[in-house]
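User: Continuing from earlier, I have the next pair ready.

Assistant: Great, send them over.

User: Here they are, in order.

Assistant: Folding the first of the pair now:
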Amino acid sequence: MASGLLPRGIVVLGFVSMLMDTSSEMIHGLLPVFLVSVLGASTLAVGIIEGIAEATAAITKVFSGAFSDWIGRRKLLVLAGYGLSALSKPLFPLATSVGAVVAARFIDRTGKGVRGAPRDALIADLTPPEKRGSAYGLRQSLDTVGAVAGPAIALALMAFTGGDFHLVFWIASVPAFLAVALIVVGVQEPEGLRRAVDRRFPIRRDELRRLATTYWLVVAFAAVLTLARFSEAFLLLRASNVGLAATWVPAILIVMNVVYAVAAYPFGRLSDNASRRTLLALGIGFLIAADIVLAAADSVWMVAVGAILWGLHMGATQGLLTAIVADTAPDDLRGTAFGVFNLITGVVLLAASVLAGELWSAVGPATTFLAGAAFSVLALGGLMALRIRRVDGG
């Protein structure tokens, strides 16, 4: 590998993520409006569905991550997870009730959970410690390109077909199956990870004690930050709330994710050499500003500004948090570390999404976003007390 270049497998996994996210966001960019306007669901139901979906993924990640540590293999679980998500995509256009959508989301997010922690651990296995910020930033950036392409394609198809949700959902299946094919031919298992002959399953008290105090402090900080950042479905609902037609609602995700995609890799590279706490503080500042703008929004343009700030927050924090988790976990416990991290933040996201739905229904959107800003300030205070140290002399 030439100096300054990331391993080939990182780039391949980035394109896999891009294809799957294109598929997922073609559906998810329309799903809240589809649930409310076509299937008659309430905004509270949207919040519960989104929270359950993400919590399902988080819970599954714990076991898949630990299993990948136990068997000393990652690729098989990555392939199984992407495959399950691909198989769930045709269920969305077949759905005729809220329950059917819940089932499809459950299968889809189970697939995300199966692949998530092993994939993140695989990236760390493939990448030198001094380049992990760049590696996670690049994968996140490519993943988010898919999050831009998905709503853009959905938007074009909705406009061309006069709002045919079902056709968009059918077409979304194509990139999902292409992602699975790319894993098969383009991702190689690293040779360094092997199962210890006498190794017990990692989800045990004595194994979890091997995770450093710094790791657990990072998990606690991330949990508070996740409570501040509820599901992005509420950005879409805010756009609809201020008068944006359903056909154009996915444009808000496009705006947010363009910024996210552009910002993620530069912030990742910067984190390899700059203060990680400073970068995280900057990211939280973007989220506070986004919440304030969205709380006050009375036009589509204000919602767009809020989406831009939200995207800057995501770009500055998500890849960086993943790199910090990789740095603070032992090599042979990294899948478990990612799984536990995602379990805790996923459960918190469930609570945040339900709370946001309740506040929206009972008080209104402004209070929902102001509550997010308040939790963001709390996370910022916790960050100021957190000392983040790199491993391997970083």
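And the other member of the pair:
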Amino acid sequence: MSSDGAPARVRLNRDRVLGAAVELADREGIDAVSMRRLAERLGVVPMALYKHVANKEQLLDGMIDAVVAGIDPPAGTGDWRQAVRARVLSARDNLLRHPWAPHVIETRTQASPIVLAHMDALIAAFLAGGLSADLTHHAMHALGSRMWGFTQEVFPTTPPPDDPALREQMFREVAARFPHIVEIATAGAHDPASAVGSTCDDQFEFEFALDLFLDGVERLHARGWTSAGRAGQSPM
């Protein structure tokens, strides 16, 4: 309580500003985050925020730092493959709690020390497994956004209609125009008409691609691949 009996105002700081911004984005989406809305949420005037974040871009940078800082490092393991896999899946678990973050990550133009620390830890796991700096360099490029726990959707589709007749009609039209897409989209489906336009198991697909990537890197490492000799080396 203050001397006049009013509730004491919690002192504003950068961590509190960023935490409130992340909570707002989690609740209402990134488009809802503005300096005005954030100030209202914190019970301050907008100008008070500029002491801690200079502008909207700096706010977004800080929000990504706050999210990346939430990635739990995996338990120590002597296996480079398991260490990389565990860190990437930890990043994914963390990112799933913040569905707005992938889009914002893709718009950032500079990496902060917190972001670089996550990348450095991944690189360290490769190098600790005996992989060369050369192979690790290319592996990190191939890993891409997967290091943060997301990938771009390959087949962006809309959900099928709820009405069975309309769903069946849509299935016939799509199958006639794009038979090969339908073939793989309905593989293993009990109701092919329902499978077209439906979403896959995102977690399974993510882990499948991650394991495929790790298999390839492991194979290259085992045969001593180098970028200098790539033109004359067989992929097998």
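Worth noting for the second one:
The radius of gyration is 23 Å. The chain is about 60% helix and 0% strand.
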